[in-house]
What does this fold into?
Amino acid sequence: MTQIQLAAARAARRQLSRFASRNNGLRSSPLLCHRVADVASSISRSSSANQQWSNTQYHQVSFMSTEAAKSDDSSGEEMEFQAETRQLLDIVTHSLYTDKEVFLRELVSNASDALEKLRHVQATGTISGSGGDQESIPLEIRITTDEASNTLTITDTGIGMTKEEMVSNLGTIARSGSKAFVHEMNLKAQGADPTTDVDPFGEGIIGRFGVGFYSGFMVSDKVDVRSKSAGKVSNNETEITESNDDPIVWESTGTGKYSISALSEDIRQDRGTSVVLHLKPELSQYSNESTIETILKKYSNFVGFPIFLNGNRVNTIDAIWLQEPKTVDEEKHSAFYKYVSHMHDEPLSTIHFRMDAPLDIKALFYIPSFHQEKYGMGRMEPGVSLYSRKILIEAKSPDILPDWCRFIKGVVDSEDLPLSISREKPQDSALVGKMRKALTRKLISHLSKMMRKEPEKYKDEFYKEYNFFLKEGICQDFESQQQLSKLLYFETSKGMAGELVSLDEYVSKCPPEQNDIYYLFAPSRELALQSPYMETFLKSKREVIFIYSAIDDFVMANLKQFEGRNLLSADRSELNIKDDDDAEKDDKDSSDDSDVAKGLTSSEATDFCAWFQTTLASKVSKCKTTNRLSSSPAVITDNESGALRRMMRMVETSEGGTSSNSMPLPKQTVEINPKHEIIVGIHRLKEKDPMLAEVLAEQVVDNCLVAAGLLDDGRTMLPRLNDLMLCIVKNNVKEESGEEDSKKES
It folds into this structure.
């Protein structure tokens, strides 16, 4: 092993010991120690034991585990991992980012950091000796496009760089100068006490990973960095003195080498830095002004310093979500809403808040006055974008809010959210999930508050427009299901047409003995009131919720319970809500002199049910008597939802299926009213005219299917109805003929 390698190993052991002491449990984790031991001690290829490293090459020393170091003598010769610098740079610049346009966001963020550093040292008085010309230069970012030369230049008037800083910041991959600056300023503010975690100077600093600069090589063949430093730290490290160094230029083609030289005298470079991208011929669109303006407004529109593109100010909108909610007036909200939503209406409601758990969050949500999914306009994308320190991380992020909240427009900004190296996605999925839950709870809380304090606005404007999204949330978002259910409104059997009540209001009006919530699906209110399933509820004076769409049926099926009460469909067989007064009334009404009105006896009803089930075995699985009916002969119970069945047929048809190959209707449970004239009449006919009795029984079943919304095609009844009408006509003709014959004989 060479002396250089031994020195590197000893340095690595010392660094690992310090690292382990700051991270409890590292030494007790063999797996982690071995993994640390496997990290490369250098990223440069070693060609000889005494190789010299110049300032133009990139290298770093990695950690070795203490366990590996202890076993040096017994484990044989220690070897170094090797890395091709050119290949590493190629990975950083070409495989890290999803979209090439992100390069501009990264370079503008670097420019903003340079300005923020200078502003800090100016504000704290740690820069001195600057001439009047230097202090008069405004803090700003200027971008120039040149289509003729196919170049793009990003200039800032920030702190600039010396030659040593260029070597350190640009010549070392994954070294963040901004992060190092914040750390250094914190140590000074804390009296060199690194245990206190405060960040008084880093709030405006964007850079974290030290790789954003190299994104410029995605779109350019060559990058020039011209810089003039605002000053350098003096020996006592308490102030920055003015630098008299001439401007310098850093140049590289991204092939693993770079050069630093004095800037030509015919090129002007004031305090700050200019990054000149010599664009690739096939990416000349990035030298177009309108293209650059679009990218700037997408990613960097809220940078804290003015951005000028070819002399024109680009970022004119303030990041109002960072301001105190009480200080933002309606005019600012209106302008910002139109910016983030790309709509021209006024927001129906605004939700502006801050949170510090599970992490620091600043959020601004808007509810538009209408949504864009109606009238066949297609499904909307998520409307909330994720920012970090005013820089766009992910536009229209699907991770911030659940899918049912896609109608919400706005932004969420978090400085604490862990990001991927490319800063295009949040990294900690568990933390993002917690943030998502917290934001969802906040949104539901706002809607609940609007429901209580502004009921008319909630019902007439919000609920009328967005009730479908709330119902979708109940079916998809299990964790928010109960909270969302409190935001729903329905018509009921005791209310007027168009009068809506919430589930809480329904429960408050229930009698003490009622432990369930009843609902009935029907195409309209009129059909619901005429439904045979309503007869028992009308007699017992129980209130029933009316639902009119398939999504409502889904909601009730998924919700199942509300405040400890079961949600039961009116077509369930286990309903037992008939009271004694109704039973006595029915017994009194049924005492009639005619045999038909007396109804079937218990034995006759049992015999009829057996005959009915046997005769219609292909349609009926079970037949039994019921006392829930008064004016209807029969109903089917425990059946599948008619709304869901129709929806399934629609889906099947849209996918190329036909009704002929659709799932057949299962056998049904039929409950008959043994006191009804039709049932009594069929019982009499089954002995006298079995064929007619069978036809009538079939018609009774189909009538029940119609009432339940389960008959797929009513045209199947037409031949039978024609036969029944013909039978009635013939019987009437025979009776009239018999009367005429009797008159003639008399």
About this structure: Residues 718-745 form the longest helix (28 residues). Residues 185 and 698 are 88 Å apart (CA to CA). The chain is about 40% helix and 15% strand.
